[in-house]
Amino acid sequence: MSKHPVSFQNHEINFKIIAFAMVCFVLCLTIFLFLQGYIFHFSIATFILKFKQSLYYPHYNQIPFGTVNDVNIQYVFMCFVFSTILISGIILKVFSHFKPRKFNISFAPIMASIGIISLVFLAGVQQIRRTEHLTYKKKMFDDKTDAEKNKMIFGSKYEFARISQKFFLRSHQGKLLTDLDVGKSPSMFYHRVLSYYLYPKVSVRIKNNYPEDVLILFFKKNALESIPDNYQILFKSENNNYILAAKNSIQR
Amino acid sequence: MLEFKLITSLLIPLAIGYAVILFISRNQIMPIFLRLALSYGMGMGILAFWMMLLGMFGQTFNLWTVGGPLLGIALILVLFLFISQKNEMKYDDDITYLNEISSSRNESLMSKGLKWLFLFVMIMYIFHNIFYVFWHAMNVPISTWDAIATVAFKAKIFYYEKSLPPLNFLPHKTYPLLVPLLQTWVTLNLEQWSDQLIKIIFPCAFLSYLCIQYYFLRFFTNKVWAILGCTILLSSNFFIYHATISYRDFFLMYYNCSTIMFLLLWSAHKEKSFYLLMASFFAGFASITKLEGTAFMMIYFFLFLLINFYFKGSYVKNRWINMIRFIVPVITIWIPFHIFKLVTGVVNSDKTQLEFSVEKILLIPQIILGFANNLFLSGNWNIVWWVMLISLIHWGRKRKNIEVKLISLSIILFFALYAAVALMTANYTWIAGENRITGLSRLILHFYPLSVLLIVLLNYPERPKSVD
């Protein structure tokens, strides 16, 4: 037995519901934009700009919503949405009292339609922010090589790892010495970045089949004194924050 | 040349997935975009599973050992189908066009015009976001925490070691390996490591999921509502951003929500075993994507039992056959990695250790508050969860609709599962504790699209026949 959904549609009612919801939404939005001046003391243009600016700050853990005068903008927007729903309910009640035949529509779909219209409206404004974000990223990353992009993101950590790789012909086991607490952010992330870009020539986080013969000194106080006698310095940054040392016996 | 190699790295799993889909869907007509979308998910899952088996048995990773046997099997399947179908030219119903849009003779010109304008704007919105996701993924190199620390780092190790090293040597050694293995596969094709190009698998998964969701919604509603569903889905900043970075959560979302959708499709068409098999395969792939995928199997199994034994629609004998159809692929995909962990002594993870005390029950309000803050006051989800709550006003009218009930139940089960994990393991800190900002959003991402499906199905004005 196949289950084909019944397909009947009262397009006129659906159109009325959506049209009513749209009109209420636009009306309430207009009123809100004027009223916000008394609440937030911004001009309409400034408020719209601040609203748009608060909408897209991408992050892999959680994306915050911006604030307007220290008030979460999502909270403000939802207050607006619920007010719109309330006002549309009152308008419908009044109109259906005076013109019952024309406004014989249920409130439930209007309520849901206002929710969806608000969502689509917010998505539209948000899309402007996404486009700005894309334009900003394009300016940053277009016409750059992979190495230039990585250097832009990770700075000296990437540069040091990239230069270090050139000193070795094969893989080596390395040890990382640092005074930073690599058990906590942000030092933990710096450690991960160095390990990622040093690999495969120098393996810091996983054991390979080679004996440990490379030292990486990274933000270590009195770093030069920490280097054993049978090690030679291959490369160091000007401020000694990054030092690459290897056993005298290794082949390079 | 590099671009050609990149395309090849996608075409091979696509071909493998296509052959398998062709084999299990047999005579069913399917739009080509849906078939390609499903082929991507299936192919990538099979590829990762095969690489995992190769690694477990100490075999090297190269194009021949990985791609060769799979392409061979794909060829055999296609040949078999070709030979068997030469004698049978019978075609079943088109599985997606069962809800034909009724003629819109009664629609006024104005409402038709507005509908097309609305559709045009939504389609432009969708395409703009597809461009954003692809550009961002392919032009911004890996820079996020999990990518640098585990996902891409493991892929790099697998590529340079040309195999799976002992799990004990790896960071986060108990974590399943689907995503790192897929990135290793891309690198094998490129023949060089690229911090950017390995991310190609994420925007492709994004596009594939979008297609699957579109056709799912089209099955139960119509074109306009299906496109609206995709628009609402893409309104989430977190969803869009995670399609561009090298995190495993997006793939888990993909397989998890696809499994739920296939179970729902199967509940509407119990005679089509294709849906059940797809749900089973994707459930298995979810279990080798993240540790949560194993926990999700409880939810899948519960939904399966409900649909198979509680809802009417199939004979008793078929119910037991369905059990086999569902359990065998899931377990076949799930079990090898766990046996491997057992054999190599890598079983205990701090994330899966049980830690329950009665005092923890007092943390329930904190857990609810943590979820509420994330769902309703963060910038992750637009106002999708708010609109889902508002849409529940239609519950009275839709309460007999099986799909609405099952999706609502799924969402509740996912929340309950994470609440239970917070109460009974050491993961409270990542879900509702001081570290919730680093973990909770990604957990919700795993089932966020279900809220979109519920919004569309609740608000869709027609009355479907699929009631219990």
What does it look like?
The complex is a heterodimer of chains A (252) and B (468). With 252 residues, chain A is of the alpha/beta class. Chain A contains seven helices and seven strands, in the order ααββααααβαββββ. In chain A, the strands form two sheets. Chain A has a five-stranded mixed sheet, with helices on one face. In chain A, strands 1-2 form a two-stranded antiparallel sheet. Chain B has 20 helices and no strands. Chain B has helices at residues 2-25, 32-56, 63-86, 109-139, 145-161, 178-190, 201-220, 223-234, 237-242, 249-268, 273-287, 291-310, 316-343, 364-377, 384-391, 395-398, 402-424, 428-431, 436-445, 448-459. Chain B is globular, with a radius of gyration of 22 Å. The N and C termini of chain B lie far apart (56 Å).
Secondary-structure content class of chain B:
mainly alpha
**What portion of the residues of chain A fall into strands of 2 or more residues?**
5-15%
- Which sequence of SSEs, written as H and E, runs from N to C of chain A? HHEEHHHHEHEEEE
Mean pLDDT of chain B, nearest integer? 89
Instruction: Report the C-alpha radius of gyration of chain A, rounded.
Output: 31 Å
Please give the alpha-carbon distance between the first and last residues of chain B: 56 Å
- Could you describe the largest sheet of chain A, including whether it forms a barrel? 5 strands, mixed
How many strands of chain B?
0
Number of domains of chain A: 2
Query: Which protein chains are joined by the largest interface, and how many residues does each one contribute?
Result: A-B, 72 and 88 residues
Oligomer category: heterodimer
Given the structure, what is the number of helices of chain B? 20
Strand order of the largest sheet of chain A: 4-3-5-7-6
State the helicity of chain B in percent bands. Answer: over 70%
Q: Give the distance, in angstroms, between the N- and C-terminal Cα atoms of chain A.
A: 74 Å
The coarse silhouette of chain A is elongated
The helix-and-strand class of chain A reads alpha/beta
Q: Point out poorly predicted stretches of chain A.
A: 1-9
Order of helices and strands of chain B: HHHHHHHHHHHHHHHHHHHH
User: Helix segment count of chain A?
Assistant: 7
Overall pLDDT level of chain A: 87
